[in-house]
Amino acid sequence: MQRHRHKHRQRQRAFGARVPDGPFTLARAEQRGKVNFDAVMPETEKPPLPERKNLLFFFDHPNSMPYTFEPEERHAKAYSHLNISTKSANVICRVIRKKKLSRVKRLLDDLLAKKRDIGGKYYTKTVREIKKLLESCERNAEFKGLDKEKLVVHASAHKGATLVRRRRHREYGRAMKSTNVEIILVEKR
User: I need a surface site. Which of 47, 76, 116, 124 has the fewest CB within 10 A?
Assistant: First the structure.
């Protein structure tokens, strides 16, 4: 309880509110020299960002999306957060990876029509969502002027954020499926 009050007082003090002095307040910490709120760091003295050493998680813009790799050839990308099973998305991505676009589209259509299966399963919901993402990536490639006959699919799926649908009664929440899927169409020479 005492620690909670301490955090609350810290927040109040940081926003300029008057907080009574106590053993755990920021005023005491400031007297001891541990915290100095009067010293404001100018923009020019801020420490520089770490160097980029081909790491893809240091982005130029906060809204940019992470991709597993950046191909040297001309390419088009699509990335989405989907409410599908990560396990089934990995199966589909493994099957379509490094195949030509025309072959992948034919495979996904056959899975949806239940003409073909993968290990006895059709993965209908996953295939439908990945097909939408593939079509989006194909339109991106068309816009960039890439040759459709030379496009090769690189797909990967990773576990997304854990989302829980809440209910009023305790212990009845449901965890929702969430997967990050990315597709890169690379123009091979």
Answer: 47
Is it the case that residue 54 has pLDDT exceeding 60?
no
Per-position b or e across 70-90, b if 16+ CB within 10 A of its CB: eeeebbbbbbbebebbbebbb
> Based on the domain organization, do 113 and 40 belong to the same domain?
no
| Percent of the chain whose pLDDT exceeds 90 | 53
Indicate the pTM of the whole model.
Answer: 0.64
Burial of 101 (0-12, 13-18, 19+ CB in 10 A): buried
Q: In the 8-state DSSP scheme, what is residue 46?
A: S
* Tally of structural domains, the chain: 2
Q: What is the pLDDT of residues 134-148, one digit of tens each?
A: 999 999 999 999 999
